[in-house]
TrEMBL record:
Species whose genome carries this gene: Letharia lupina
Keywords, alphabetical: Cell membrane, GTP-binding, Lipoprotein, Membrane, Nucleotide-binding, Prenylation, Protein transport, Transport
Region (Disordered): 190-218
Subcellular location: Cell membrane
Source species, domain of life: Eukaryota
Membrane topology: Lipid-anchor
The protein's name in its UniProt record: Ras-domain-containing protein
SMART domains reported in the protein's UniProt record: RAB (SM00175), RAN (SM00176), RAS (SM00173), RHO (SM00174)
UniProt-listed Gene3D superfamilies: P-loop containing nucleotide triphosphate hydrolases
Family statement: Belongs to the small GTPase superfamily. Rab family.
Length: 218
């Protein structure tokens, strides 16, 4: 799916809108990363996402370029896995998250990357995020996945790579900014269409497209 680029008030200004999806095992902190990025908040005690949650955030790459992310934060529980294609279909970019203190979470992340590379938009930008770096900063023995191993995998798979902490905000904005810089702003033009914020299925009891809370650590 292409983005939409429109001319702003400033001559030469560009505004681009892209659909982004977060994937990963339950409790790796996907929703915490989004909450930190969108609202600059962190909550230790938040319920798991049900289905998926929708949020938006806008960042400025420079004085003339603004990127808006329409973010689908998906549930990590196995019972929701079959719904994932509804959210990553036509996504321009994806963040696949794992927990650097849980070795199995990287295996799950790798399976998501393979699925995206096989079934999603062929030009999708994928970033790998090793979350919870704050835990190993305090307790180095908790690290289960070395930075070197994850970085080597990301390089081999053609992914962006960051180790992040939703709790301390380490590399969170850098992660999304790096994705924005990789997106094909110059190719969007007026051919693009706006990402549909209603796309997908939201199983939460709240009204769809109005995500606020109840969505971390999953």
């Amino acid at each position: 799916m292409s983005s939409r680029v429109s001319t702003g008030a400033r001559p030469g200004a560009r505004f681009a809108q892209f659909k982004l999806v977060l994937l990963g095992e339950s409790a790796v902190g996907k929703s915490s990363l989004v909450l930190r990025f969108v609202k600059d908040q962190f909550d230790d005690y938040r319920e798991s996402t049900i289905g998926a949650a929708f949020l938006t955030q806008t960042i400025s790459l420079d004085d003339a370029t603004t990127v808006k992310f329409e973010i689908w934060d998906t549930a990590g529980q196995e019972r929701y896995k079959s719904l994932a294609p509804m959210y990553y279909r036509n996504a321009n970019c994806a963040v696949v998250v794992y927990d650097i203190t849980q070795a199995s979470s990287l295996d799950k992340a790798k399976s998501w990357v393979k699925e995206l590379q096989r079934q999603a938009n062929e030009n999708i930008i994928i970033a790998l995020a090793g979350n919870k770096s704050d835990l190993v900063a305090e307790h180095p023995d908790k690290r289960a996945i070395t930075t070197a191993d994850a970085e080597a995998y990301a390089r081999e798979a053609g992914l962006l790579f960051f180790e992040t902490s939703a709790k301390t905000a380490e590399n969170v904005r850098e992660l999304f900014t790096a994705i924005a810089r990789k997106l094909p702003l110059e190719q969007a033009g007026n051919r693009g269409m706006r990402a549909n914020p209603r796309q997908g299925v939201d199983l939460r009891p709240e009204a769809p497209g109005t995500q606020g809370g109840g969505a971390c650590n999953c």
